[in-house]
Amino acid sequence: MPKDLNTAERKALIYGIATHQDVRKLMRKYYRSPHWRAVLAAVLASRPICELCRHRKAVQAHHKTYATLFHEDPAKDLDAVCGGCHRAISRR
Known about the structure:
The chain is mainly alpha-helical. It has four helices and two strands, in the order H-H-H-E-E-H. The chain has helices spanning 7-14, 20-31, 34-46, 83-91, and strands spanning 60-63, 78-81.
């Protein structure tokens, strides 16, 4: 199981002081962390159906904002979505 991001990595993401390539690397690490897995499990347990299309199973969580990164409130900061809707949101 991967470890959570260290303090310097968290600051780089929160304050936007990482390069684009570093942000991608750090976000991949974040999405593998025990913290994110717990947040994702909470979102999917409380909302098992995609909140956008309302007919497919939710399998991912979409951040409405990254301002609350590391302190997400699953009820307010994240949407439970299916893979197709998440891809559509990400293309905007």
